[in-house]
Every structure is written in structure tokens, then in C-alpha cells.
Amino acid sequence: MKKLLLLTAMWMVVSAAASQTNVVVKYSVGNNYGKEMTLVASPEKSLYYNAMSQYVDSCESTPEGKAKLHEIQMKAWRVVQPDGTVTYDGRKLGLAPEKSITLYIEKSNAEGHLTVYDHIAGGSYRYAEPMDEIVWQIEEDSVKKILGFDCIMAVSDYHGRRWTAWFAPDIPISDGPWKLRGLPGMILQADGGNGFTVDATEVGSTSVAVPPVYSTDTYERCSRLKILADHEYYENNLESILLAQGVKINGDGSPANFPKYDRQKSAWETDY
Q: What's this model's pTM, rounded to 2 decimal places?
């Protein structure tokens, strides 16, 4: 029965690619995300995002949605004290929808570029870059199964990291997690070293369109190099930035001594 279900799932994915419906892949992401990301992909375009954050953004895009989201959050955080007074417990934040990962990556084969949307250092930014940058070396003899799919290994140096990826030719959409794409099949697993890993946990299909990025006009246009450099500056100067805003890290005013930002351990891209 388990084998039959697996074969049925694989048939649905292959059929989806052939009939122009969309493929959905859920990924477990390591390192500084540590959360689940979703890729919804068609042969023409895709979106890589965190589902909960996208739900919150969809609510916040309309006055009605904002009001509904606020109602849900207040109910989840509400605490009735023994004397009948009502308080709100910040420790219960995880019980209501909230944005934990603000990254969106939108790929467009028609336009030949991908667009990154993110919220960094107190601002919302976006930038575009061409999609023809990744040069893969495919290792035809290196094959393994991932979620029942035969996957082939490929290696590439991309944005400062050496990526080892495993792609499934039976899912004939040239896409994958994060910015990775350009192989003859869907990338289901990738490792860029130092804990930067992405592993598919579920593969399926949907007739729903590739989701939008909401409120794109609120994102300031920026270059890739600037946004990465600004993020590093923010991390390395966080204490002085907070102090300038009147925020004390320690109650006694002593230095917090945050660790210095290490690109190799903290940044998905190190070539800036």
C-alpha cells in the first residue's frame, strides 16, 4: 500500500508538469532560517516563500484582512487574570499567525530574471538579478532517491558558496529552492556548506496559481551588493544602532558584546 501511494504521488507530480498545473515542494531549511519554505513552480514562473509569512502579508494587504488578523492575534495572546482583568502575554506570540521569515524569491523565465524581496535592518527592499548565472557540473553517475524520486547530483560555485544539489529529472521543471535553478529537473536537496542546507520534505501538485508577493510597491529598489553589505553593517553595529534609538540591551548599561558577523556562517551569499 505504501509503495502504491508513493507511485500515485509521483504520477500526480509528473502529470502536473505535463498539464501545466503547478508543482509544490516544501523544504526544510537549515542555518539561519531553520524553518519550512515552500516553492510553487510552473514552467514559466515560481515563488519561494514561507507560507505563514505569506498568509500574514495577504491579510495585511487589505483593511479587512488587517482587522481579522488583529482579532485572531488578540484572542491567541489574551490572558484572563484571576481578578478578571485581561492582559496579553508576549510569550504566546507563537500561538497566532506571525511573520518569521520575510524572504520571497520570485523567478520569471519570461523576463529572464529573479526578484528578491526581503525585510532587513528595519526596511523593506527588493532587487533583481539575471537567471543565467549558475553553471552546473552534472555528475551522471551519482544518483540517489529522495522522496521516491531518482535524483542526480550536480555541483556549482554560486555567489561565494560551492553548492551540491540533487535534482529529479522526473519533475521536468528547471527550478529549486532559494535562487537555485537551471538543471533539467526540480532540485530536491542542496548543500552549500556551513549548515546551509535545503531538503525537500514533500512534493505535490496544485491547480492554484503561483502566489503573488503582496504590497510590492512598499519595497524599496536596491542592488544585491548593497542590501547584503547593509545587512552585515547592521549586524556588526546592532548595539550602537539600538543605543542611538534609546534601547539598552542590558539593564545596567553594560555592553552586550554581540559576536561579529561571519559571512561564512551567517550569509547565504558571501561574494559582496
A: 0.84
